[in-house]
Amino acid sequence: MKAMQDECAFFRFSTDGLPEAARAKAVREFYERTRIEPLEVLPDCVVRVDITKFALPGLGLMSGMLSGLRQAARPRGSASGEDDLFLGVNLRGSSIAQQCHQELILQDGDAVLATRGLTGFTVTRPAPVRFVGFRIPRGAIAPLIGRLDDAPIRVVPHRSETLRLLVTYVGAIIGEQPLDTPELQRLVVTHIHDLIAATIGATRDGRAIAEGRGIRAARLRAIIGDINANLGDCALTVAAVARHQGVTPRYVHKLFESEGLTFSAFVLSRRLARAHRMLSDPRFGDRSISSVAFDVGFGDLSYFNRAFRQRYNATPSEIRHSAVSRHLSETGGRSI
């Protein structure tokens, strides 16, 4: 296991570099070494594991791909004394969740909510499933959801708005931002607790708390992702983003205002930054400056030139010339 911080650790394990015949043994050895929740290899199935697990105060988070395996959660009050709440999300693929005599089929986007109970539970993935799973102490989320008894496992359907926000938020955190300070770790854990509580049924007061913390942060993340994906659209507007996210334009404005930003200033900044990266990359050296400007969403070349110079204290041509000169110096005049 590789430590990130005293309070945050992670490991990654993958069988992708192994021949199929060696994967089952590698999975058994991995379980013996790490003592995570038991993993059972399924007969006559192709085994594949490619997972990353984060351990933070009050949160276990695992994401990746599993195939040909049954994953088990130990019963409550077992040797480790664990008493956790689990939420597992099928991002893509089909899984079977079982507890006692109950069996649930999870399809793309569905999630399963489970407590350990007196028997534990299992999730079976005969074919490849891309997933993200959350494990939190029940006491950590109780203030938001009230008393949580050992209820049967249940499906949280993919239609859930807060489930979608949770998945988007976690994807952004894992993919973009290292959790390299205790303060950031605690903030992320709080937001995820909020989103899970809202997903599984927070109390009225708990929902109000979650709306002001985790849900707001997740919606902002989702909106920023939407903007980044559509920067090249000259017609990108706050109304279009709000419509796609299912909120009002005023709500979008308020989210940016809470960060000391405006929607238009944020979009402009992202467009200029993307143009700067392209102009600084010799691989785009054959693209005209006007083509770069239009590709990142500027419909007016003169406005682009003014905004670019104001931001970087240099013209687009000067940035490109500097990048080309630097590349020729580093490669001895050879082209890429």
Order of helices and strands: EEHEEEEEEEEEEHEHHHHHHHHH
The CATH level-2 architecture of the domain at 2-159 is identified as Sandwich
Looking at how many chains there are and whether they match, the oligomeric state comes to single chain
CATH class of the domain at 2-159: Mainly Beta
CATH fold-level topology of the domain at 2-159 = Jelly Rolls
Helical residue percent band? 40-55%
What is the number of helices? 11
Ranges where pLDDT stays below 50 over 5 or more residues in a row are: 1-6
What is the alpha-carbon Rg in Å? Answer: 24 Å
In terms of DSSP E residues, the strand content is 15-25%
What is the end-to-end distance?
Answer: 39 Å
Task: Kindly name the structural category.
Answer: alpha+beta
For CATH, the homologous superfamily of the domain at 2-159 is named as Jelly Rolls
Largest sheet: 8 strands, antiparallel
Shape: globular
Task: Give the number of DSSP strands.
Answer: 13
Spatial strand order of the main sheet: 1-2-4-5-12-7-10-13
- Write down the overall mean pLDDT: 87
Describe what you observe in this structure.
This protein has 336 residues and is an alpha+beta fold. Among the domains are: 2-159, Jelly Rolls (Sandwich), CATH 2.60.120; 265-331, Homeodomain-like (Arc Repressor Mutant, subunit A), CATH 1.10.10. It contains eleven helices and 13 strands. It has an eight-stranded antiparallel beta sheet with strand order 1-2-4-5-12-7-10-13, sandwiched between helices. Helix 2 (138-145) crosses helix 4 and helix 4 (182-200) packs across helix 5.
